[in-house]
Amino acid sequence: MTVGILASIIAALLLLQIAVAALVGLSRRKRRPAAIDVGQNSPQTQSPAGESALSGSGPQQARPAAWTGFREFRIARRVVEDRAGTICSYYLVPVDGLPLPAFKPGQYLTFRLTTEDPVTRQPKALVRCYSLSDRPRPDYYRVSIKRVLAPADRPEAPPGLSSNYFHDHVREGNILEVKAPSGHFYLMEEEPLPIVLVGGGIGITPMLSIVNTLLERGSRREIWLFYGVRNGSEAVLKSHLQRLDREHGNFHLQLCYSKPDKQEQAGIDYQHSGRVDIPLLRSTLKLMRYQFYVCGPKPMMESLVPGLASWRVESRDIFYESFGPATLIRHEKPMSVNAEPITVTFGQSDRRIAWSAKAASLLELAEENGVDVASGCRAGSCGSCQTRLIAGEVEYQQQPDAEIEPGHCLLCISTPKCDITLAA
Ligand SMILES: Cc1cc2nc3c(=O)[nH]c(=O)nc-3n(C[C@H](O)[C@H](O)[C@H](O)COP(=O)(O)OP(=O)(O)OC[C@H]3O[C@@H](n4cnc5c(N)ncnc54)[C@H](O)[C@@H]3O)c2cc1C
Ligand code: FES
Hints:
By secondary structure, the chain is of the alpha/beta class. 22% of the residues lie in helices and 25% in strands.
């Protein structure tokens, strides 16, 4: 064999090797996206029908715009979520079968129900809001509802109307009237900072939506979830959250039990004994900028939100929502300081009440003085506190989302500008 022939054979072998390597590389590149799609980034939550709902159902698909007014939804599935049996999830599919609009994780649905008035036994219309507790999907929404009992100091009072109606009467196959997702408490996506979510009791629901959305999208944002409950019997979707914590290096679950059961062990069943408070956040989190999202019972809100501000967290990084009476309304506009005393007259109730700047809104003034007014979202979205304004003028503390009929106002986000008379 001549040197020339030998060189040709070596060159041919080298070319063959390069071609094989290129082919293998190409096939690997093709397979990689499929592995990411199906794999580690997807919380394996199920669709109401029970099948995996991940494929092709991501929020990135083109989705229709929100509907106006109420739309009919069928309860496709109902799942009790906690050992105590006080929280139940409802999976809602649209009766018209059309795809659902996406929503911002943290937003809520508004329901119109007809229940029975506990005193008169007559049918009673109710409007209530429930946060979406899962990520956006085109085929169903999920809400998780806690049964509300009479207050401990008023055991003779009727238990919560809407929540007990859901638990006792709403079954698979029932049809409910629902307004499109809305609300101003939602995940801020513009600045992808690390986030700290604090959910107290049923205040976990918007946090579940935020966590499921971010992790399903494969977000690399650092996510801390401080979940405060009395003990494991009250923890909702605990195994789902623990699985996410195991599978995602950027998600840190911190279960905080204020009254752990005897058999529950710190470090195994939960991370912290006691309530979620500023010392706990300070000792757990690194010294860096986070966005804080807080939703929980009144005492938690009243201690944590001002506590974060005292800890020098800037107000642009604190987001919160209260499910109960608004004690911490964030005023987008500074309230006018009135030199003159203002009187608010509630016509139907025949009450004249001096306006107090301590009340965050006309709704709060009415409630504090025993004037019966309807409410739902307490954020200007659902329209249920809309009341006829007979005389005078109000000003809004934030932009109303609900459509307001001429001559009416939304009590939950307004304050009086002068003496006013309301129909309520
Ligand atoms: C934006 C938003 C999101 C929300 N998201 C969720 C969620 O995801 N999950 C959830 O479970 N809840 C959520 N809520 C709370 C929910 O909307 C309801 O407020 C809650 O279910 C209680 O409503 P209810 O009709 O059952 O109780 P209500 O009938 O409104 O009664 C409330 C309380 O008042 C007591 N009461 C009634 N009458 C009297 C009386 N005469 N004297 C003294 N006390 C009395 C009742 O016993 C009860 O304890 C949310 C609220 C908002 C505003
Ligand atoms: S309570 Fe919903 S708009 Fe006022």
